Amino acid sequence: MDFVDYPDREMLAIDVANKLAGELRAALEHEDRVLMAVPGGTTPGPIFDDLCAADLDWSRVDVMLSDERWVPEDSERSNTRLLRQRLLVERAAAARYLPLYLPGDAPEERLEELEANITPRLPIQVLVLGMGADMHTASLFPGADKLAEALDPKAPALMAMRAPGAPEPRITLTAPVLDGAMSKHIIIFGAEKREALERARHLKPSEAPVAAVLSQAQVHWAP
Ligand SMILES: O=C1O[C@H](COP(=O)(O)O)[C@@H](O)[C@H](O)[C@H]1O
User: Fold this and answer.
1) How many Å from the N-terminal Cα to the C-terminal Cα in the chain?
2) pTM for this one?
């Protein structure tokens, strides 16, 4: 794991957006299409604000979330909503979005369809993840009902997940798919998450799910 320390969140956003754009451009030089997966939540918005204006061939980029909350797109809790408002705009509006939510009462109802759309596009070339102070990443939460299955090297690409720390059902990319990404960036803000990440380095993924994706990841931190 490589740790990059920034003086503030704005500097982090500019630098990470530049790095992601560079990685996408480089991958587009030898691939017809490139897959980038990004997190939802409160952290990535400023990176999206910079990345959406990057000068690259977005029409050959597929964008998906690392995980989604099972709520309609117009909900304040929807990660898709964040993506549509702050990443899939300006130049990046030309990207193709691969959804992790379709209308339905529970993720299990639409899981097969969603997975059929994602699996042929794997592996992920460029991955960005967030992390909660509880050491969850994507929707791999400590104590989640299917965490052990999602950490299994033979896990399917996508799984439904429910966890005490998550107010709604989730759908998430599983550990082998996340860990298998060609380039991995983890974005964290604040002292509490920095301490949590330090703890996670010495714990098993079953206790600290983010530990499943730390190898060869670049962690970007700002106060
Ligand atoms: O619920 C989620 O949480 C994590 C971390 O979110 P943050 O608000 O603490 O940045 C996020 O990475 C994930 O995509 C999201 O669904």
Assistant:
1) 19
2) 0.98
- Distance from residue 137's CA to the centre of ligand 1 (Å): 7
| Residues 41-96: tens digit of each pLDDT | 999 999 999 999 999 999 999 999 999 999 999 999 999 999 999 999 999 999 99
Residue nearest to atom 6 of ligand 1 (CA): 41
Distance (Å) from CA 9 to ligand 1 centroid: 16
Distance separating alpha carbons of residues 189 and 193, to the nearest angstrom: 6
**In 61-196, where do the E strands start and end?**
61-65, 67-69, 96-98, 126-129, 158-161, 170-173, 183-189
User: So what's the ipTM on this one?
Assistant: 0.99
Give 139 Cα–ligand 1 centroid separation in angstroms: 8
Give the CATH number of the domain where residue 112 resides.
3.40.50.1360
CA distances from 47 to 8, 148, 154, 190 (A): 13, 31, 32, 16
What separation in Å is there between the alpha carbon of 45 and the centre of ligand 1? 11
Residue 211 identity: A
Work out how many domains the chain is built from and give that number: 1
Q: What is the DSSP string of 47-89?
A: HHHHHTT--S-GGGEEEEESEEESS-TTSTT-HHHHHHHHTSS
How far apart (Å, rounded) are the C-alpha atoms in residues 70 and 169? 5
Q: Which atom of ligand 1 is nearest to the CA of 187?
A: 10
Domain that holds residue 78: 2-222
